[in-house]
Design a protein that fits this description.
The protein is mostly helical. It has 2 domains: about 55 residues, no CATH class; about 80 residues, no CATH class. The chain contains 7 helices and 2 strands, in the order αβαβααααα. Strands 1-2 form a two-stranded parallel sheet. Helix 1 packs parallel to helix 6 and helix 4 runs antiparallel to helix 7. It is globular and about 45 Å long. The N and C termini lie far apart (about 45 Å).
Length: about 140
């Protein structure tokens, strides 16, 4: 079960939402996940998107043109430096910000290893201060 270690770890830390799509696992992700879940299938939600539903080649380019700009890379570097000054990773800052917003009901993150599952769970529960949230928002104001 080594190849499913991240899914098993996610179950162990009470992750209850799994996103699958035709593009994952050579089109076999939903079937493979069902094998991993076994009897715990009843305890989780599985979302499955049809082929081409997101990030098709044209939408990827539009996304890149809109968001992967030199100005945004600079903002990201400043946010990362700000986080390091406070002993936080960029992941902590990003997930902590998302989790601080009551209008965001869930943070959906990918993980390829059990270690990434643990880092994601730690980051989403890191509890940013109000100053940290405000600083991040000030960097990206008008973005």
């Amino acid at each position: 079960m080594g190849q499913f270690a991240s899914s098993c770890r996610a179950l162990d830390v009470s992750v209850t939402f799994f996103d699958t799509a035709d593009m994952y696992g050579r089109g076999q992700s939903e079937e493979q996940l069902s094998q991993v879940l076994g009897e715990r299938r009843k305890d989780v939600i599985i979302a499955s998107l049809p082929e081409g539903a997101r990030l098709a080649s044209n939408s990827q380019k539009r996304f890149a043109d809109r968001f992967l700009t030199p100005k945004n890379w600079d903002r990201l570097e400043r946010l990362e430096a700000y986080g390091k000054e406070r002993g936080r990773s960029l992941l902590d800052i990003a997930f902590g910000w998302l989790a601080s917003k009551p209008f965001i009901p869930s943070v959906i993150a990918g993980a390829s290893t059990p270690e990434q599952v643990d880092l994601n769970c730690k980051a989403v529960t890191c509890g940013l201060t109000a100053d940290e949230v405000a600083h991040g928002e000030s960097l990206f104001a008008g973005a």
